[in-house]
Amino acid sequence: MQRISKVVIVGGGTAGWMSAALLGRTFGRTLDITLVESDEIGTVGVGEATIPPILVFNQALGIDEAEFLRETRGTIKLGIEFQNWGALGHRYMHAFGDVGHYHGLSPFVHYFLRAKAAGLADRLGDYSLGERAAYAGRFGHLPRVPNTPLAGLNYAYHFDAGLYARYLRRIAEGYGVKRHEGRIRSVERDGESGHVRSVTLADGSRVEGELFLDCSGFRALLIGEAMGVGYQDWTRWLPADRAWAVPTENVGEPRPYTQSIAHEAGWQWRIPLQHRTGNGHVFSSAFTSEEIARDVLLANLEGKPIAEPRLIKFTTGRRETFWEGNVVAIGLSSGFLEPLESTSIHLIQSAVVKLSTLFPDAGFEPAYRDELNRQMIAEFDGVRDFIILHYHANSRTDAPMWTACREMTVPDSLKERIDLFRDTGRIFRHGQELFHEVGWLQVMLGQGIVPERYDHMADALSEAELDSFLANLKTVMAGTVSRLPTHRQFLEGTGAK
Ligand code: FAD
């Protein structure tokens, strides 16, 4: 079977340059890769918080962490703090890494539930090293927690996505990726196979290819406009359809975590970078006006705005298929989930890694396409359920959007999970889905779902043994955190200014 030799990437946002860098690194000069982008159109220009798999992506590209943090003005992210989500005035953190640890065969949650019922434990986060370090404003590389079976800190980054794309462009160009600037005016398809053969730019130049990656953002130039692949709209479960975004000056010490603050008709993000803080208000236009949403954001900023607020409109959902013919959609062209759990950049990474491992021959074996579609659909749908959980499990009675979300019918896949947890405290990760049991646990408990039972295995310890198991964990964690450098000291160690 003949190999594909020419790949065209349409779009030079985060999706385009992540794809170019990884394919360049993976296939080297055996592939001729051209990326087309339009300076006139520009990129979406937000997207600053990530999740831990980004470390694997950067490592695969051979990126040095200190250089990366300097170049992208990045900071460390140990988790996301949710304020006012389950109930007004409440807060919890979805921190990365373990919470407590197994004792015998029983997951930690059951010891925690038993101890909580007996008045021996208070907050789940007391047993999360990530949360404790986050609130202490500390970070350092830590392979293991001394005297426990616990792994050290798991983390991700906040960074300036525009600078990240620029940084990746240098890497991609180092592997021979060519950049073609200009606005695409038309897309030509083969009459017989329906495959895209070339794109023609406003200046009349044509770029031909065998495999096309659609990284054109919300425009979905190839997968949507040219190939006509439909879009599943998830607004009935995730009502937000707009966001105001505005950067501010930094105030105080950089928090090593993202903040998500629920308001009446949406929620606000705060993402600290080295040189500024990213802020935005994601909201539902069915429950508030654009003007009010803008005022809510401006009234809840910590520092002075350094630009005018910008409005971004979106429809939450995904493409029916991600790979159609010889077009693979990556990034916003393939779907959008609001940045509540910082999953968009991860979904780009996941798609381009899957494409690398399922890379087609010139004959475009349907089996590869079907497998990529199956895997991406499962991944998107799993993330969708996780995000719906945040909206659905609430006891807020102060605003109509929260009541509507509480009363809505959620996908069966999510309902089954919630019912099982409420009944037994048990959570299972499905297949290869992105979020592990510990992530679901923190959000379920944080949103106020209280299990009726815990596993019998947790009764194997006497109450005194349980008390000392938990007290010991707390002591070890507190000691470990106190020995870590502050977040600022860590960043200064990378040469950040
Ligand atoms: P874009 O950035 O829109 O890039 C599209 C590219 O296509 C551009 O280069 C453009 O020039 C090119 N293009 C389009 N049309 C043409 C044409 N006709 N001719 C030539 N070129 C063309 N993700 C996270 O992981 N974490 C977050 O915290 C986060 N926050 C977000 C907040 C909001 C409000 C939004 C909307 C998104 C957020 N995201 C976040 C998502 C993240 O921004 C995107 O996933 C990421 O930027 C990828 O965008 P993209 O490259 O697909 O599209």
Overview of the structural elements:
The protein is α+β, with helices and mostly antiparallel strands and 497 residues long. 36% of the residues lie in helices and 19% in strands. The protein has a seven-stranded mixed β-sheet with strand order 5-4-14-15-16-13-17. Helix 9 (344-357) packs antiparallel against helix 10. It starts with 5 loop residues before the first strand and ends with a helix. The mean pLDDT is 95. The structure holds flavin-adenine dinucleotide. The site of flavin-adenine dinucleotide has 37 residues, from helix 1, strand 2, strand 13 and helix 9.
List keywords for this structure.
497 residues, alpha+beta, 7-stranded mixed sheet, 6-stranded mixed sheet, 15 helices, binds flavin-adenine dinucleotide
Spell out which ligands are present: flavin-adenine dinucleotide
- What is the SS-derived class? alpha+beta
* Main sheet record: 7 strands, mixed
Side-by-side strand order of the widest sheet: 5-4-14-15-16-13-17
Please compute the radius of gyration using only Cα atoms. 23 Å
Task: State the helix count.
Answer: 15
What's the helix and strand layout?
Elements lengths: L5 E5 L3 H14 L4 E6 L15 H8 L4 H8 L2 E3 L1 E5 L7 E5 L12 H10 L11 H8 L19 E3 L2 H14 L3 E4 L2 E6 L6 E6 L4 E3 L2 E4 L6 H6 L4 E3 L8 E7 L9 E6 L2 E7 L4 E7 L6 H10 L10 E4 L3 E3 L3 E2 L2 E3 L5 E2 L7 H14 L8 H27 L7 H8 L4 H13 L12 H10 L16 H20 L4 H7 L4
Parallel strand pairs: 1-2, 1-11, 2-7, 4-14, 11-20
Antiparallel strand pairs: 3-6, 4-5, 8-9, 9-10, 12-18, 13-16, 13-17, 14-15, 15-16, 18-21, 19-20
Helix pairs in contact: 1-6, 1-9, 5-14, 9-10
Bound molecules: flavin-adenine dinucleotide (FAD).
